[in-house]
Specification:
It is built from nine helices and 19 strands. It starts with 7 loop residues before the first helix and ends with a helix. It is α+β, with helices and mostly antiparallel strands. The longest helix has 24 residues, at 376-399. The radius of gyration is 24 Å and the shape is elongated. Strands 1-2-6-3-7-18 form a six-stranded mixed sheet, sandwiched between helices. Strands 12-14-10-15 form a four-stranded antiparallel sheet, with helices on one face. Helix 1 (8-16) packs antiparallel against helix 3, helix 3 (110-127) packs across helix 9 (376-399) and helix 5 (212-224) crosses helix 6.
Length: 400
């Protein structure tokens, strides 16, 4: 009798109907466990905690006890729906219209989870027992602070003796159509907060004040120009964006006492988190020393604080993993996927410390949007890709 979890659309509808907005589990991990346990998986549920952050429930499930070990990683938490009245279809109803399934998390990334479950169920149904082990590492904290999710679940399971040979993360990596892109690495990310100190005063008596707006403009300009580098063979150029400038001042005739700015830099393998911080400080100190809030005044005075958890740049070079996934994509879609390091960060930044990791999932055009949706045809195609990949990855290890 055909196992019903071989249908990715049915799997996804079960997951979408769980309102698992970070940090709520919303029933999504319970629904996933109900899919995996009949396949023979041993399921572990773990709640991770840390002061100042919400408790997060996570799931780890393993099938098999030995042999090469392939991990599938992802998340069932989703971002808020925004204005629910703006949705054409209810965000947690998994309604289907014109060949599309609508719902929050359809592509980011309950769809990827649903397809990998279906793919694995098909492999087991057609081929019998795997010649190795497969595990699911699924968090409820990817869309949140990412403190009590993947990083702690990895630590917990590694301490329990788990070891992995490779990992596939099912994030939506394709920009336009399935088969476009595999992520084989990610840029690093560091955020900082700058405060320039001035002297508050009346706008008509500027000689009695020091306007910090002048200084914050000088400092932020120095951060954005000149470019940090021209990129590398595997990565695009490092890029810094100032994301906020604020003085907290609603009065038109008051020079503020301080001005602040927030920035984020995405850096390539030319840098480490420490070296890019050092370059940023060099630029700020130089700009502060050479400028002043007003002619004849002392150099610009500023403070900087850094985000607590920088993301580190990484590049996966595991040829069997990359080749198996690339071949599976090309076999099913006829497209040769680009091997990319573009985009933001993902939980792959934690997994790379334990095993080689790549990312491949659905088309991401509607992620985080009103009316997030996925084509039913894409669910079937991604399932076929995952199914082919599972067979090819284990075959490659058997031949090694």
């Amino acid at each position: 009798m055909k196992n019903r979890v071989t249908d990715p659309a049915e799997n996804l509808s079960s997951l979408i109907r769980c309102p698992s907005v970070t940090p709520a589990e919303g029933g999504a991990l319970t629904a996933l466990a109900a899919m995996l346990e009949p396949l023979g998986f041993k399921v572990t549920r773990a709640v991770e905690t840390e002061a100042g952050t919400p408790d997060i429930e996570n799931l780890y499930a393993r099938l098999g006890a030995d042999g090469p070990h392939l991990m599938f990683a992802g998340h069932t938490d989703v971002v808020p729906v925004g204005d629910e009245a703006a949705w054409t279809h209810p965000p947690f109803a998994a309604e289907i219209a014109d060949g599309m399934m609508y719902g929050r998390g359809a592509v980011d990334m309950k769809g990827g989870v649903a397809c990998f479950v279906a793919a694995l169920a098909r492999v087991i149904e057609k081929d019998g027992a795997l010649k190795g082990s497969v595990s699911f590492l699924i968090t409820g904290d990817e869309e949140g602070p990412a403190v009590n999710g993947t990083v702690k679940l990895l630590q917990r399971m590694a301490a329990a003796g788990e070891r992995w040979d490779a990992c596939l993360v099912g994030e939506p990596t394709n920009p336009d159509v399935l088969g476009d892109m595999i992520k084989i690495g990610r840029r690093g990310s560091v955020s900082g907060y700058i405060t320039v100190h001035g002297v508050q005063g009346h706008a008509a008596y500027q000689h009695l004040a020091d306007n910090p707006v002048r200084g914050i403009l000088q400092l932020t300009q120095a951060l954005m120009d000149p470019p940090f580098d021209a990129g590398t063979d595997a990565f695009p150029p490092t890029n810094l964006e100032v994301t906020s400038i604020d003085v907290g001042n609603s009065a038109t005739n008051v020079i503020p006492a301080r001005a602040s700015a927030i920035f984020n830099i995405r850096f390539n393998d030319t840098w480490t988190a420490d070296s890019v911080k050092a370059e940023i400080l060099r630029r700020l100190n130089k700009a502060a020393a050479e400028g002043s809030l007003r002619e004849g005044r002392p150099p610009v005075r500023f403070d900087i604080t850094w985000s607590e958890r920088p993301s580190h740049v990484f590049l996966t070079r595991n040829e069997p993993l990359i080749a198996s996934l690339s071949a599976a994509v090309e076999t099913v879609t006829g497209r040769k996927p680009a091997l990319s390091t573009t985009g933001g960060t993902s939980d792959a930044r934690f997994i790379k410390d334990y095993c080689p990791v790549v990312e491949f999932g659905l088309v991401g055009q509607t992620m985080h949007m009103v009316d997030e949706c996925v084509a039913l045809a894409d669910l079937e195609t991604l399932t076929e890709i995952y199914e082919t990949f599972i067979r090819q990855w284990f075959a490659a290890h058997a031949a090694a």
